[in-house]
Structure formats: C-alpha cells, structure tokens
Amino acid sequence: MSPDILTGEHFINGNTASAEGAIAVGCRFFAGYPITPSTEVAERMSRRLPQLGGTFIQMEDELASMSAILGASWGGAKSMTATSGPGYSLMMENIGLGIMTETPTVVVNVMRGGPSTGLPTLVAQADVMQARWGSHGAYEVIALAPASPQEMFDMTVRAFNLSEQFRLPVSVLSDEVVGHMTEKVVIPTQDKVPIYARRKPKEPPSDSYRPYQADADGVPPMANAGSGYHMHVTGLTHDERGYPVITAAAQKKLIQRLCDKIRKNRDKIIQYTEVDTEKADVIVVSYGISARTSWKAIRTCQKHGMKVGQLKLDTIWPFPEERIRELAGMVRGFVVPELNMGQIVYEVERCAAGKCKTVLVPHPGGEIHDPLDIYKAIKEVAK
Amino acid sequence: MSDRCAKDEHPDDASTVHRDTSGVGGVHDHDHRKEEHTHPMDFLLRPGRIPHIWCTGCGLGVVLTAFLNGVKKANIPYDDVSVVSGIGCTGRIAGYIQLDSFHTTHGRALPFATGLKLANPKLKVSVISGDGDLFAIGGNHLIHAARRNIDMLVLCVNNFNYGMTGGQAAPTTPVSAKTQTSPYGCWEHPFNLPYVAAASGAVYVARWTVLHAKRLVESIAEALNHRGLSFIEVISQCPTNYDRSNKGGEALDLMHFFENKTVVRNGIDPKDADIGLYTPITCGKFVDIQKETYDCGYDRMCTLAKGGKK
Amino acid sequence: MKYWRKPLDTDTIEVPKGKVYILENRCKGCKFCVEFCPRKCLEVSTKFNEKGYHPPVLKNEADCIACGFCELICPDFAIYLEEKGTRPAGEVKKKSEEVGAQ
User: Fold this and answer.
1) CB contact under 8 A, B115 and A73
2) Domain spanning B56-307 has what CATH number?
3) Which of A199, A276, B255, C27 could form a disulfide with C55 if both were Cys (CB 3.0 to 4.6 A apart)?
4) Displacement of CA A229 from its chain's centroid (Å)
5) ipTM of the modeled complex
C-alpha cells in the first residue's frame, strides 16, 4: 500500500517532484495528455492516484484535459494537469473559463522550444507572456516559476493553495531542464505541508444564496456540485446569482472584482528571492533555469570585483513591479537573461521607467544560456 | 458560435416572472386563473428567467419541460442532478434549470462533465447541448466519452444548423439544405447522430422529435437510470433560421411534419436512420445494451494498483 | 370519438376531468396546445398579452380529460392543468359527439 505523502529524501526529477507535491497537498484528480517534456507528471500520477483512491484519466486532447479538471474542481476535487507549449495553447480558452467561473485548479507547463512543434525535447522559457495574456479578455493570473526539483515540489504545493485561496487556475511555469533534472528533493511530513482548505459557504442552501457574492478579500466561498446549493456557473458575464447578464454594468462589476482579487492581494502572492542585491550595481532579473545559469556569470563577476546581485522571480505573475521600481533607483542597470527573444525584459523595462539600463540576454531555446553571454552583458551594464 | 448575438435581454433587476406569478400581468378575473399562479415545474426553474430567450415555436422549451419531467420520473434526488451544457441555443438550457448547472465553453461540455462525474460519482450528470456543439467542435469529445462509457446522459438537440449565430451549416445539415453558409445548398454529407454515438460505444441510443414529448420523457427517465453513456437525439424545429431558409413553414407546420412523417422503429440498426431534407424521420430506441462502465473498469484497475499486482 | 359499436365497458370506466390554467404573459403564441389537444379544448384568444401574442383560452372545461399533453408540449411553461376528479366515459363521449369533433 502506498502512503499518501512520500515523506523523506528523494533523488527524483522535477516532473516527478511536481506530481508528489500535488499529492502531498491533496490533489486527487489528474486529467492530462502526453506531451514531451511533461509526460513524467502524467505517468507518475497514473501510477500513484489509483493507489490513493484518486482519479487519473488520460483525455483525448489538451482541450478535454483542461475542461475535465475544471469539472472535477466543481465536483469537489483538487485537480491538475501538466502540459507543454502546444498543449498550453490549446488550453487557453478553458483557462479563461476557469478564470471567469473562478474555478481553482493547477496547470503545470513544462516549457519547451517553440513556436509550434518546435523542439519537443529541449528547453525554452517562451510561454511567459502567454501565461499572462494567452486567453482572450481582460483578467489577472498567477504563475509560479520553479528552478529546481525541490522548487517544483514546493511551488506545486503553493500553486494549489493559491488557486484555492483566490479561486482561479494557477500556472506552474517550469521548463524542460528543471522538469527533467534529477536532484535531491526533501518531502516533509504531512503536517508540515500547508493546505488551504476550500472556503465553503457559511449559510445553508436557500433561495437567497448568491454563489458569486464575494467576501471581504474579493473571493466568494465555493460550493461544490451535489451539496444542495443548485448554483449556476457560466462563462458568460454574470452577476452575484451566477446568472448571465449581458450588460456593460455587469461586466464592469465582475471584471473589476476578478482583477482586484489578485491586484489587491499582491503582497500575499508575489514571492522572489534576492541574493547580494544590497549595494549592487547590476542586478540580474531571472527565473527558472536561467536563474541558475546566471549564477555562474554572477559569481565570476563578483570574483572580478563587480557588485552584482540576483533577483530570482519565484512568482512571475503578478509581476513584482514595486520591487523593480525600487531597485531601479539604486542600480546602474538590470540584466534579464531569458530563454526567449524578450518577454519579461519588457516588464522590467516598463517598471524601471528609464531610471536605469535594462539589457536583455535572449536565447531562442534548445539549450541553456552560455554563462559567458550573461557575464558580458553584466560587464556592459556595469561600465 | 459564441453568445455574441444573444437574445437575452432580461434587465438585471426587473424580473418579469417570479415563482409566484400572481400580480405579474398574467392574472385576470377569469375562472381559469388561480389566486396564486405557479406552474408545477416552476420550482425547478430559476426565478426571473422565464420567459426564456428561445424563439416562438422553438422546440427547446419542450426539451426543457421533457428533461425536467424525465428527472422527476426517474426518481433522482434533485441535489444529485448536475446539468452541463455548451454554447448555442441549446446550451442556454443550463441557465434555466434550478439545479447545479454549468454553462461551459463551446464543444467542451462533455469533458467538463467527465471531470465532474469522476470527481463526484454520486452526481447524476446530464450533458444537454446542440448538434454543432456536440458533433462539430465537440465531436472528438463525444466519441471518446462514448468509447469510455462514462455514466451520464447526453441529450443532443438537433436543429440541423447553428441557430444562435444566425443559421449556419452544421455537420447535421442535409445535402441541398440552404443555410447562411450554404446559400446554394449544402454539399457535405451529414452525420447520422445515433449511428455515430452507437459506433463510438454508447450503450443507450434513441432518437425522438419534440412532438414525441411523452416518449421523450420516458426515454430520458430510462436513460438516466441506465448505467453508461446514454445518448438521445431530439429533433427540433428551428422556425427562425433553418426552417425559414428551407421553407419548411412555421413551427406548427414543422410539428405536423414530425407528426406525419416520423416512423417509430425501435431496435433497428441506427445506420439505417439517415435524415435528409424534410425526408421521413426514423425515431425510436435503437440501442439498449449493458457494457462495463468507465468507473467499474477504473475501480477494477485500482484494486490491482492497491494490491501491488502488475 | 365515433365508435361503430359502443364499447362494452363504456358505462364502467371513468375518465379524468381536468382544469386548465394559463399563464398568459408567458405565452409566445406558438399554438401547439391548441393544435395538439386531442379533445380540441383550446382555441386562440383575441386578446393580447404583454408581449403582443394571443394566448390560448379554454373553450369548454367539460371537454378536458386531463391528458396533460398541453402542459408537456408547451415550450414556455405557460399552461398546466390539474386533475379534478373523474366522470363516466359515457358522459364524455356524448359531449364530443355534440361538438362534432374528431
């Protein structure tokens, strides 16, 4: 009999760690479609969930996977899926449905070279803007960026908790290198794993029940299907009753609340790791595997007497605008290495607002950066 | 495809009809009126949403009535019933039902319903959607849900076009039928929906028209209690689009067409039940078999997983 | 109903009586109830409802046999009925012959 949580020290890859993180936080529903380099998550879940009384289903495509995890969430389960770029593109419409209906769920995107079929087995970090803007309409998202198998475990746990707390699909933007690298992962005891329990309605079912009446933090409690509340859930613009109301006034009210529930709670969501940023002349802003690649360059720079630090984005969305603005006034410049042709760099540039330089170290993907390129960029900025 | 041109004009706070309709213009001093005037099905309809948005003479109102009657007849606890619909005229049905109801994205009602059912097997899940939603954009999901034999009811209302968006051709539009995207007549072969469903693995397959309301209620009740994926196609008139483009007449003419030109043949092979442009329609219960459902197979496999046997 | 001979149990079987209620403002004038009532109990009225449709009206309550088809076939939840007891089948047959229906 397999225990629920595999407490102990493990030597596993990032994808496996993500699956175990999901299980540790209570995920018992996985619907997915095989796609390199995320398939290990599905395969691990296919092995573990049946042992734990959970549900694993391989759907016919990613559109079905995303729909199924939304449905499962309304059925009361903590649900997730795992995919890569092409699948993430297919999921976009239903991510929008999840945002509009305020359905908690987790989508792990193990990013690979694109666009289109691209490099199925090789790394990139080019879905970052897509995570923010990929679905149509006006909305806010939460996306986390692990840089190690341990972080894949921890951030998957956090993703579930954030999704339940703020009622929306949360993306875990991993990449092929982090997903496939094998490292030590320490899994704690169950009591040490924070679990945000779904906030249920306090009042019993009645005619006056309003499924989308928000609490003070902007998030409504969520009733599960089958619990007698008879709620209506729709992707159309709706009011507190959940009924479609096709007017500008209803749109304003709803969209404002959906955005505010993230924007006004940024301090609870945003996380980043700063190292050596105090008194730094140059700060490297990076995420995922590029944050680790940057270290080689940063250490070399430090050895040569330069004052360089790193701001590693643990959450990419919402973006830590305030901190970037603050740092922009203190440094000569930012260096942004990304495995794409420029995505997060524009956010950094926007927030720096011309107070300092912002230099991109792009790379279309296929392999990680050569630290020498990052070193050169840092040196250039430090001049 | 989307609800961009929705006819839903209910002002938010001026509900036209409450559960208790007395005093809302419908009460006259007539000996047919009750003091407190409530339709017996009102308790299953969302307050303030009737009259619904469907056109005069549209068959969808009958499908809604039949579905609610079917649920009642099947003796299923109301709290356990979940309705999932897609996008389109039929998709709006979820918005009228005072039970757990989910109005999802175009074509994706079935996988949503799959997730819902598997996460909470106690639920009695019904997917009610249109021919375009279930067999065009949602076609892939239909055949897989049927293949898996997920325990749910799929009620497909077939009006031979995409009604909500103005009457474009659909995979069920018969050859030579005129629609907004086939102004010279449709040239594509249409699907035979019961055939597709049966071939994909559905264990209960039936077709009725909206005129056959009583048989439809019985069929729905039967299908709700049938284990596995049940598929019922309901042929409906579309007096505003399809039937107007093809000069089928008013809604009443179409109902007479259903009355006079349908043949009920239970048990036939669904492949013999093609539908052409105003050709006779074959109705009936075509398939009624038992097959291991998805959850039974999954549970069987879980036993293996827990026992550690490969 | 016209019979070529009188059924043997005409005087023993009881036929339900129905009382029809119409929610006029829900009616969208499709005429299904009028057309498909097996006893031709309903007709289209001349009055207008809120939306400008002509709702149905019950011609003669005595004709209704509470079959419930109007309630089932109405797309708009605008008509329903209640069973109000029964009466001998013989009585019903006479009524319809009078009206000259079917």
Assistant:
1) yes
2) 3.40.50.970
3) C27
4) 31
5) 0.93
